[in-house]
Known about the structure:
2 domains; 20% strand; alpha/beta; Enolase-like, domain 1; TIM Barrel; globular
Amino acid sequence: MIKIKFSDCSKVIEPLNSPFGFKGxxxxxxxxxxxxLKTFKNFSSGSSIQGVLWSDGNVYSKIGESKSxxxxxxxxxxxxxLLVDKEYEKPGDLFDFLYTxxxxxxxxxxxxxxxxxxxxxxxVPIDNALRLLYCKEMQAFNYSSFxxxxxxxxxxxxxxxxxxxxxxxTSIEQIKQLADDGVCVFKIKIGADPDRDNDKNKMLExxxxxxxxxxxxxxxxxxEYTDNGYVAYxxxxxxxxxxxxxxxxxxxxxxxxxxxxxxILLEEPFDEENDLNVSNIEVTVAADESVHDVYDxxxxxxxxxxxxxxxxxxxTITATNKIAKLAIENNIALFxxxxxxxxxxxxxxxxxxxxxxxxxxxxxxxxxSNGPQNYVNWAEMMAIHPLxxxxxVTPVNGIFQLNDDYHKKSGGIFL
Length: 415
């Protein structure tokens, strides 16, 4: 058994190049948390970023960005304190205990239960630290031991297409530059709230305008990595749509402008409380933040969802493994999405993504990473990456080239 003798938790607040827009709102900065754990003979450090707006828009709107971040950080701190003198045999053994305690702690403060994802997000640095500590105790420095689930890992890809995030305020010049740099999949945030009045008709019209604007720039860009030979679009609504009819109106518009055949994914069109069946929507509909656990995953499969965006860097690897197993059993497409994470967390995500089969419409795997676009201090973050000069760490022409040496070193996460 591995016995934890010491724990600590700290944070750094990183500035963004500009406010990060999604779910009709914006985040002004990102809190990066680090958890340190010690046994009698080993030490580990796990990190994560706090996505408070992504993980619970309701908490964000009720208490604001700063207090939401303070709450999430306090959950991580509280759980760290509970870890001292706890024992575990393998990664994931303490997960249920930590989740239950985290939810109770948050509920006592808020006087209502936050979304499950809010607690999972707070648990990520602990989950990562426990896994790294396990690898040190076992002297098993490979990603399979770290993630501890070979049933999920059925392939090992040598290429991953970079997916940058096109937020509400990403400029056309930036989008064109990304295409010129070889990017072949563009994640486009939709569900805008242009006048901050939650008018769904205005949202739809703004989304049409934005997609048309982007498509006019990307129309002629081609790619050898997509089935149709052109760059692909991945629309992310973050639960902002309210009816099937409104989604269909958007997709019909994309047919009119010639963009429909480029859409490989439509992510999270509806709020998680909205149990609409999406089987008749003509594109692959993916679930993201609404899939907290296996129960939610089964529900989404029954509602016609054909893909899941996995976030081992935002929902813990422990929770992600359970969802991925069920998805594979039901022929659900899987890919790894970002949460504007740091360079080393990108490597944790890349390792996971490289072990998943390509989604429909793609010939290779995909991985979202938008940190370089958004962090003021990205260059400084990259400077401390243990494999910063490795050819696999930075995408070339929009593609991460993951050779045998990269996989042997697991992207540097153990260094």
